[in-house]
Amino acid sequence: MKRTKIVATLGPSSGSEETLVGMITAGVDVVRVNTSYGDHDDHARLARLARAAAASTGRPLTLLLDTRGPKVRVGPLPEPLPLSAGEEVVLGEGGIPLTVPEAVADLAEGVRVLLADGELELVVLGRDGGGVRCRVIRGGDLHGGKGVNIPDVALSLPSLTPFDRESLVLAREMGFDCVALSFVHRPEDVAEARGLVGKGLWIVAKVELAAAVRRMEEIVAVADGAMVARGDLGVEIDLYQVPLVQRRLVDLCNAQAKPAIVATQMLRSMVDSPVPTRAEVADVANAVWDGADAVMLSEETAVGRHPVEAVRAMAAAARAAEEGDVAIRVPGLGRGLVGEVSAAIAHAAHCVASEVGARAIVCATSSGWTARLVAAHRPGVPIVATTPHEDVARRLGLVWGVLAQVIPSAQDVEELVQTSLATARDAGLIASGDRAVFTAGLPFHEPGTTNLIRVLTVP
Fold first, then answer.
1. Catalytic residue (choose from 67, 161, 264, 439)
2. Catalytic one of 73, 112, 312, 329
3. What is the pLDDT of residues 31-83, one digit of tens each?
4. Which of 3, 5, 32, 425 is catalytic?
5. Which among 193, 232, 247, 344 would be 20 to 30 A from 70, CA to CA?
6. Residue pLDDT, tens place only, 353-404
7. Which domain holds residue 432?
8. At 457, phi and psi to the nearest 5?
């Protein structure tokens, strides 16, 4: 089995139950609904499709909604606008239109403006009515709808647009498991989103702005996980610094037992090709070795010609990296967790499993926290999380190496042990006669109380 989870984006190429079932069978653990495209009816339809496909496969599937965010784009243009190096243009009112006109309010003389993923570059010369006057530094043909990045300035735009607020309400009402929060500037953005979705959904902060990189530790501390969104990030900061940010973000998440997702262009060639390039396979492998919980497919499965093959290729690349002789990075738990009883039990479970030759670590959990703590150590055996809560089981689909199983509520320790082991055995995750390390917390049904560890033989 692969331990690294796969996130796949839904779209026209994966918009049928048959295709999605094929993707799940090939190795998808999490499906992403990207609200940058379509309306709320489309997003609700995709959520229902995902739940139906998961039910038909009998596998738990994590459902993630990705917010649109205040993405600034070039407005509609009747035809491509040629920009020549050295010429002056107006950005905003009276010139090149923007989908968020108020974005120019924060632009002062000398600020760089990048268009079309950084292919074109302007520098601000000064104000011009409701817009700004700019000089073209790097020219080319500008098309409507292209992205606008202003990496040197933290724009005073709200992280959540009215559309995003509606999306978060939809996520709560439709039973999504996680929300990927776009264009996070500051930790307060995460707190604002949490106020709309409540405590049940995980909030995954997307690091794609220079402002987010500068406050990455604070953002990870308040989020439930994070995503390195390398598309906009590669425009916002020096392109050659993106791998360093990726590794740093994964380390920060692992140290706090929070899932980390590596995203964007991982198998980009498979939008058209049925096989990945060697460089793309190496990119997936390096994300695995960095310790990422999950790797993500975007346009490959949303609009690509080979969505099932893309999932199959990513699963094969992840599995090969995991089975090789390259160790996965394990930074160790952060200071805030060291010394906690639950963290100590998780570390002990990892060590004991290795020493006694256990075939699995079975975590009976109410919130999923113990399974996440164990996963942070990247043990060499599967982590089976048993829980009476279906929503907890689904969210754990985003966590490295965790196989979640829903069990009935138990009345005492022995019932919990036997039910957990029997469920894992019946699911084919362990076999009779195997050794397993078992963890749980007393008293029952209280999150964060893990204080029990036992070595057992599976009946």
1. 264
2. 73
3. 999 998 899 999 999 999 999 999 999 988 999 999 999 889 999 999 999 99
4. 32
5. 247
6. 999 999 999 999 999 999 999 999 999 999 999 999 999 999 999 999 999 9
7. 341-457
8. -105, 130
